[in-house]
Amino acid sequence: MHGLMQRTPLLLSSLITHAAENHAGAEIVGQSVEGPIVRSSWGEVARRAAQLAGALSRLGVREGDRIATLAWNTPRHLELYFGVTGIGAVLHTVNPRLFLPQIEYMLRHAEDSFLFFDISFTDIVAALAPKLAELRGLVALTDRAHMPALGLPNVLCYEDLLAGEADIYLWPRLDEDAASILCYTSGTTGNPKGVLYSHRALLLHSFCAAAADGLAVSCLDSGLVVVPLFHANAWGLPFAAAMVGAKLVLPGARLDGASLFSLMQTERCTFAAGVPTVWFGLFDYIDRNRDALDLSRFCLDRILCGGSAAPRVLIKRFDETFGAFLLHAWGMTETSPIATLGRLLPKHLGLDREARYDIQSKQGRPVYGVEVAIFDPEGQRLPRDGRAVGHLKVRGPWVTAGYFKGEGGVVLDAENWFDTGDVATIDADGYVTLTDRAKDIIKSGGEWISSIELENAAVGHPDVLEAAAIGVSHPKWVERPLLLVRCKEGKVVEKQAMLDFLADRVARWWLPDDVIMVEELPHTATGKLSKVSLRKTYADYLLKKAAE
Ligand code: ADP
Are residues 404 and 455 in the same domain? Predict the structure, then answer.
């Protein structure tokens, strides 16, 4: 017997309709690419998304067509999130930090019909557009006064495009399984692969993001979204915020400590979301300007942090400096991205701070909607005992079932598990602790050393800004850890001092065979340490040293 309830499709357009009707006045504040801070609202985003939808339809965009963006976190990019997906077209968010050939590959692979770009990316567009035959038009996300001189046909001005359109749009009743957003993983190995989110997946994910034990986004929040709209749907925050009418603060291209500090202070942010590197930048700014800064005017309640492991020292600093709880999240582009969150359990509430930081350092427990499990190399499920280390697999309604155009072949096993490529333990409470990405594990004489744990221990040193631990060839142990350390400006940490510091924090046999001070560490386009290039550079370092 079927239930007798309405079969309303779960569509992203329902979010902007709801926000416009019930939270029209809630603010959207953005650092524009042109310079000034712009103040919009959910009502205005809804009206302009409707105008955009009208313009796209007039340009001949149809359901399933891909529309690419090369854009920062701004109100206009937010309008695209709703205007494009609302009509059934697919928003393809492109990471502008990627190398030109990678961007070209993605635009070509996605067969995008239009490319909307911030004027700061004019050079990228000028280099690529002439090569891309599928592109029917380019739209500069600006007004007439700031239009770049591209010298290409088919360059439109976003504000002109919207100007003539009605600010109401009758959003079509799409199939909830229709594609809505396309986002390529950076593909550290092989070509980038497209993750194609359905409306249904992202809507269910929004309920999870808004829930109290999720990201707990509410209409009382003012959230600084540092995590890019071009990467994994900015962790679902645009949709969760529309669902509840939260104020959003969008930092545009200004991601330095000073700009973020100022926005968080003036916009009275209650939460902020970003990868650990961003927050180290914030504290670097605070440390340098401590005497001049007024920290009393902050109302920061929590930091949403993931993308790479949030070191304990960061958790502690947010607690001590702002009284803010660092909510550690783990996920990936393929999981929309929220999968596990580091909420505390009732039994943890009485713990002292240091013990609580230990819990927060783990990657968290699965949210409802994502099942997690660890497996040995033969595919046997491993126990949740906090000790067994295995390949982390996930499944659920917002986990990918396959990549766009079948790239990468079959990605699920017979029981629908998706292999994340990460290696982890899961304890009896369900807390996942990530030991490594499978390819980053340091395999020393048949035993595994966690590069993440070594790095976290190293950045616990007060003079260290960043650290990378990699496995490099060793004549006896096959691989041994090498630690590359970038110190804070004006600071130096000698090798022996670093080893002494680590000796209290990790097992003796985990201690790196050498410590090298570097001026810079390479990062991927998503802000993570680029271990692939480091491994290449230092592959024979210990072998050469042994031969000397
Ligand atoms: P990319 O590979 O393009 O950077 P993703 O954002 O999809 O794209 O990366 C997901 C990966 O990032 C995860 O598989 C994991 O290795 C890493 N990661 C994400 N969150 C965390 C976290 N909290 N701690 C450690 N690693 C994390």
Answer: no
Q: Among 157, 120, 361, which Cα is nearest to 255's?
A: 120
- Which atom of ligand 1 is least distant from the CA of 334? 7
Query: Which of the listed residues 189, 235, 330, 372 should we mutate to test ligand 1's pocket, taking the one with most ligand atoms within 8 A of CB?
Result: 330
> Does residue 234 lie within any of the structural domains?
no
Residues having CB closer than 6 A to ligand 1 are 185-186, 232, 306-309, 328-330, 332-333, 363, 420-422, 434, 437, 524, 526, 528
Total domains in the chain come to 2
Q: Are 426 and 377 within one domain?
A: yes
Task: Please identify, among 420, 437, 454, the residue that sits at the C-terminal boundary of a domain.
Answer: 437
Alpha-carbon span 184 to 103, nearest angstrom = 10
Ligand 1 geometric centre to CA of 304 (Å): 14
Render the burial of 31-67: b for 16+ CB within 10 Å, e for the rest. Answer: bbbbeeebebbbbbbbbbbbbbbbbbeebebeeebbb
Query: 410 and 378, same structural domain?
Result: yes
Copy the structure tokens of residue 499: 């080893």
pLDDT band at 527 (very low <50, low <70, confident <90, very high): confident
Write the residue with the smallest CA distance to atom 10 of ligand 1: 332
Nearest CA to ligand 1 atom 6: 332
Per-residue pLDDT tens for 93-133?
Answer: 999 998 899 999 999 999 999 999 999 999 999 999 999 98
Q: Is the pLDDT of residue 187 over 80?
A: no
**Catalytic residue among 321, 448, 488, 495, which?**
448
- CATH number of the domain at 410, please: 2.30.38.10
**Mean pLDDT, the chain, as a whole number?**
95
User: Do both 512 and 542 map to the same domain?
Assistant: yes
Q: Could you tell me the two tokens for 194?
A: 């497209």
Exactly one of 79, 165, 267, 334 is catalytic; name it.
334
* Smallest CA separation from ligand 1 atom 5, residue: 332
Cβ–Cβ < 8 Å for 71, 117 = yes
- Region 139-163: mean pLDDT is 96
Query: Is pLDDT of 188 > 60?
Result: no
Is residue 93 flagged as an active site residue?
A: no
Query: Is there a catalytic annotation at residue 185?
Result: yes
Ligand 1: nearest atom to the Cα of 328 = 23
pTM higher than the cut 0.85: yes
Q: Residue 500's pLDDT is what?
A: 95
Regarding whether 523 and 452 lie in a shared domain, the answer is yes
Give the Cα separation of 138 and 150 in Å (integer): 10
Distance between CA atoms of 105 and 442, rounded to whole angstroms?
32
